[in-house]
Inverse folding.
């Protein structure tokens, strides 16, 4: 889909074995400078805005300065996450943490609290990356229960920047 000067690419994957589907993932990639080809903007994402009250659960995890190098070992070779010159040429003041790492930190908070450290209880999560996380930032995940097996989620850095928004988690009790 065209989004002005950017492009949005949707990717859905299914993991199966001989017994059927094990999991399903969906990712939407926002590609700066990849648009301009026209087309519809596409649908807005579903709203999962947190309520105007204190979160039911708050979990903070500090990220590490070396996480960019560790994530590089996982096969993500995007230099924007490790090379200061490349980040600067791309319009960013410094390398920043991988989105998947941010997502993992938030997922860890969900696993720890509403799922009580039981991976079998963790059913699903989704969210929108809304800002970058720097290496060494603290990510605070705020969780609002929205039913017996659903929570609205928002994550922010120590300076109050929301980095994961429009997020929700589903789990079993």
């Amino acid at each position: 889909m065209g989004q002005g000067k950017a492009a949005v690419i949707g990717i859905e994957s299914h993991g199966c074995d001989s017994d059927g589907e094990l999991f399903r993932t969906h990712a939407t990639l926002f590609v700066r400078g990849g648009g301009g080809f026209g087309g519809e903007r596409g649908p807005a994402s579903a709203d999962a805005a947190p309520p105007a009250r204190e979160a039911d659960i708050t979990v903070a995890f500090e990220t590490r300065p070396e996480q960019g190098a560790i994530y590089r070992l996982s096969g993500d070779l995007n230099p924007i996450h490790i090379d200061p010159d490349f980040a600067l040429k791309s319009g960013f003041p410094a390398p920043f943490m991988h989105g998947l790492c941010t997502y993992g930190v938030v997922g860890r908070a969900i696993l720890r609290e509403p799922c009580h450290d039981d991976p079998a209880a963790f059913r699903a999560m989704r969210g929108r990356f809304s800002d970058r996380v720097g290496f060494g930032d603290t990510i605070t995940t705020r969780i609002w229960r929205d039913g017996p097996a659903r929570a609205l989620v928002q994550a922010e850095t120590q300076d109050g920047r929301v980095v994961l928004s429009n997020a929700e988690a589903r789990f079993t009790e």
